[in-house]
Predict the structure.
Amino acid sequence: MEEVNQRTTDTSLQGKVIVITGASSGVGRATALALARKSASVVLAARRDTVLDEVAEECKTLGGKALVVPTDVTDGDAIKILAAAAEEWGGHIDVWVNNAGVLAAGPFEETPVDVHDQVIKTNLLGYIHGAHAVLPIFKQQGYGILVNNISVGGWFPTPYAVGYSASKFGLRGFSEALRGELHQWPQIHVCDLYPAFLDTPGIQHAGNYTGHPLRPAPPVYDPQKVAEAISRLVLHPRPSTVVGGMASFLRIAHGLFPALSRNITANTMEFYFKRADSIKNTDGNLFEPAEYGTSIHGGWRTPPTPRQKAFTNALLVAGLAVGLLWLGKRV
């Protein structure tokens, strides 16, 4: 029991063994580097082994230790191998970060059903595979932190990305149910992250069946913010963390006005599709890893102007005011 308390209250990341899936780009890569700066030992998992080798070298340069384990999270056996390799290498596993994810956009019935399947396999079953592999290790140790990077999509549905929404809503239920099962294990934590739209290569990697280029909806946040949030959770685990004010706004908007917010989103996307250039459909990185998009950022983000900042803040305040007014009328 002394070892349990020491590991969960230690303020240093040195000696912490942290597994990160989807570590070759975006949030995963940012998280690996952020933790390495604090001398953590990171286990890097993704399908692109060459890119993982590059990330590992960066981590070592920053003062951390790194192990590369090429892994496809849709393969449950591969995830078990990842967990075993991490435990053997580090002697234990302190934190497991479920982060690997994919996106597919397009009209539901015009998107191939095997694409919907692959999105669910990666985003939902991939997280379940990770938890299923690491929880026996956590229970044997008596401690551990499971981080599920879910996204605002766990609260706010995305028309024209139905499989993605199903996976994200499913993840929220998965975490809640699992947290209930672990109520007798106070040193084992399940931590959910809900970031807003991020400037990562994820959009470039997406399966796209809309016939038009995809762009993230503004405001687009720096994925480093998510990496910083994960770093904090390693030391101070909590059940739910929101990253970006827009994520909170969208959660409130859908909670209070589900039909209105959902239809506005659909209308906005349809308006964009009618005016966007035409391109060929693509599977993106759904079935095979992409050779492009290996950085943390996707190049979507530009520094907001003071006017844009003021508009975003006003939108958030207005949304909160409307919500409070609506609640007041109900009371």
